From TrEMBL:
GO terms for molecular function: DNA binding. PROSITE patterns: HTH_CROC1. This is Transcriptional regulator. Residues 44-80 form the HTH cro/C1-type domain. Keywords: DNA-binding, Transcription, Transcription regulation. Pfam families: HTH_3.
Length: 106
């Protein structure tokens, strides 16, 4: 149940805002109250970042459009089985990917 206006005024009259702010700053400096967000990065993003390739380079190597790659990276679509296999190889063996890229661009 929310406090009435009178109850709020009584509560606020007893508060020491300066002390509360000082304690808040101390808590922040001590690392208390941190909010840690864990973000799951899709495998396709991990693979591309490991390879060091741009979206357009990585999409070209996989034989898909940049738009399709972006859809995969943003979770709007899922790669097919063959694309998933290439992405797994790219993530686990980025050097192999670079060899393929060099041969692809010659």
């Amino acid at each position: 149940m929310p406090l009435t206006e009178k109850q709020l005024q009584e509560r606020d009259a007893q508060r020491d805002l300066g002390a509360e702010l000082l304690q808040a700053v101390r808590d922040i400096k001590a690392g208390k109250g941190k909010v840690v967000a864990k973000i799951d990065v899709p495998p396709v993003v991990k693979a591309r970042l490991k390879s060091g390739l741009s979206q357009s380079q990585f999409a070209s190597l996989l034989g898909v459009s940049v738009r399709t790659l972006q859809d995969w990276e943003q979770g709007r679509r899922q790669p097919s089985g063959a694309a998933q296999t290439l992405i797994t190889i790219a993530e686990q063996q980025p050097k192999v990917l670079m060899q393929v890229l060099k041969a692809h661009t010659l």
